[in-house]
Amino acid sequence: MTNTDEKFYRATITQRVDVAPELWILRIRSHGEFKFVPGQYACLAVEVDGKRIERPYSISSAPSEDEVEFFLELVPNGALTPSLYKLQVGEELLMRKIPKGKFSLDTSNGKKNHLLISTVTGVAPFVSYVRTLSKEWKEGRFDGSHKLFLLNGASRPWEFGYKDELLQFDRELPWFTYVPTVSRPWDHEDWPGEIGRADDILRKYADQWEMDASNTVAYLCGHPDMIEHSKAILKRRGFVDRKGVKEEVYWIPARK
Ligand SMILES: Cc1cc2nc3c(=O)[nH]c(=O)nc-3n(C[C@H](O)[C@H](O)[C@H](O)COP(=O)(O)OP(=O)(O)OC[C@H]3O[C@@H](n4cnc5c(N)ncnc54)[C@H](O)[C@@H]3O)c2cc1C
Q1: I need a labelling partner for 4 at 20 to 30 A (CA). Which of 61, 166, 183, 209 fits?
Q2: Which of 36, 51, 57 most suits a substitution to test ligand 1, by most atoms within 8 Å of the C-beta?
Q3: How is 85-139 classified by DSSP, letter by letter?
């Protein structure tokens, strides 16, 4: 790949994990220093027929890792993901040198609960939060006074890219709770977990965890419908302050 400019690094794919037929985790090593804050996204690009196509992707790795990780979904007729999907270990892509986004954990406003709600790949920024805080906790730099509660929705059990890692964190970390939920369980009688979309179970868990706008910040990431439904539910619970609800919408839904 040629033609990088001052705005893009070249980056080499070091690992690819195919989570499901159209979902995969990529780890890349950038050819230059890339600094970011957990919750931010990077713009990935490839050149297709001489034209550079780029899209934003949330980063799932922690800043302390020496590679940058992403959880990607193939959009079959999309402009970029079919090209990204073809890339294998050892091949290169482009990444903007500067990360973007303000979807970071807000620990400055006195609220100690952080309710993280995601669909499928929308879990990525939350993985970055938890990996980062877990390291800080083990090194004595985070006292566990902020509690993270993650509701992670998918249609099918095999779509959870980080379930094992997050369940392990849930067992290890007293300040982290993980609830994966599946909305199409009927083909999976052995699914032991929650049933329903993330926004369907939001009310129940917000009650159980005694969350309200005075003690909780909500973070919504991924599918636009989940974000709309969750915002409406949260609004009815008193989350009217825009600072109380942060959102990262992955795409604009087609008009019905
Ligand atoms: C801040 C931010 C972070 C993002 N992080 C991630 C991430 O971590 N992982 C990830 O896979 N994607 C992420 N996205 C979405 C990503 O940027 C692209 O939109 C997506 O990969 C599709 O790109 P494309 O060029 O293949 O399709 P496009 O040509 O851009 O889109 C084709 C059509 O599909 C719709 N569409 C886009 N994505 C989806 C989808 N997932 N499901 C259904 N329809 C869709 C578009 O609205 C459009 O109508 C993020 C988006 C934003 C804004």
Answers
A1: 61
A2: 57
A3: HH--TT-EEEEESS-B-------SSS--EEEEEEEGGGGHHHHHHHHHHHHHHHT
Give yes or no: residues 209 and 142 share one domain: yes
Predicted confidence (pLDDT) per residue in 200-221, tens digit: 999 999 999 999 999 999 999 9
Q: What is the pTM of this model?
A: 0.96
Question: How do residues 125-149 score in pLDDT, each as one tens digit?
Answer: 999 999 999 999 999 999 999 999 9
Kindly report the protein residue whose alpha carbon is nearest to atom 15 of ligand 1. Answer: 250
1 is written with which tokens? Answer: 């790949």
Ligand 1 atom 13: residue of nearest CA: 57
Ligand 1 neighbours, Cβ below 6 Å, are: 41, 55-58, 70-73, 75, 78-81, 101, 121, 124, 248, 250-252, 254
79 with 122, same domain: the answer is no
Q: Which domain holds residue 155?
A: 113-249
Give the end of a domain, one of 66, 96, 126: 96
Tokens found for residue 134: 């877990």
Ligand 1 centroid to 212 CA: how many Å? 31
